[in-house]
Amino acid sequence: MYGNIVLVNGRDNLGRGDKMNIIQVYQRFPSHESCLKHLEKIRWHGKPVCPYCKSDNSSPLPKELRHHCNTCNTSYSVTVGTIFHKTKIDLQKWFAAISLVLNAKKEISSRQLAVHIEVNKNTGWYLTMRIRRALAEQPGLLQRIVEDKEAYIGGKTN
Ligand SMILES: [Zn+2]
């Protein structure tokens, strides 16, 4: 269902996929934790998979918001293997930045982006660069993060 999605002005080629704007992003994901939960739903469909050994035999580590792999004995977060891995930037800001980039009719400048999400211009540049690169590498993931599901949820019930 998500194959060959082409973005045209923030809409995909299936004529679907309204993107949340940054206000909707902040309302829907009011905390870092709610952003992580959202990512887990998108990437794992509720069942954590170890990024190192692909095992789904895990125990939650709720305090750290991570999972412990019972097969290879490491712990991991849903951000491993995504652009969010090892960044100090709040996931909410990431999600807001993704929504800004995907919703922009023309390319948004890193300076504008920095102003909108209240980060300094170096961080704005870093985010813009990472998001553009990720759009080439993991377009489906970014797309689903800010997709406004309610707009077409009726079509997904069966
Ligand atoms: Zn493992």
Q: How would you describe this structure to a colleague?
A:
This protein is mostly helical and 158 residues long. The chain has a domain of 109 residues. The chain binds zinc ion.
Biggest β-sheet strands, sense, barrel:
3 strands, antiparallel
Helix fraction? Answer: 40-55%
| Poorly predicted segments | 1-5, 151-158
By secondary-structure content and strand pairing, the structural class works out as mainly alpha
Radius of gyration: 16 Å
- Distinct ligands, ions and cofactors found in the model: zinc ion
Task: Find the count of extended strands (DSSP E, 2+ residues).
Answer: 5
User: CA-to-CA gap between the ends?
Assistant: 13 Å
Number of helices: 6
The residue-averaged pLDDT reads 85
The shape is: elongated
Order of strands across the main sheet: 3-4-5
Note the run of SSEs as H and E.
EEHHEEEHHHH
In short:
The protein is mainly alpha-helical. The protein has helices spanning 22-28, 32-44, 91-103, 110-117, 121-137, 139-145; strands at residues 7-8, 11-12, 58-61, 66-69, 75-76. Strand 3 and strand 4 (66-69) form a beta hairpin.
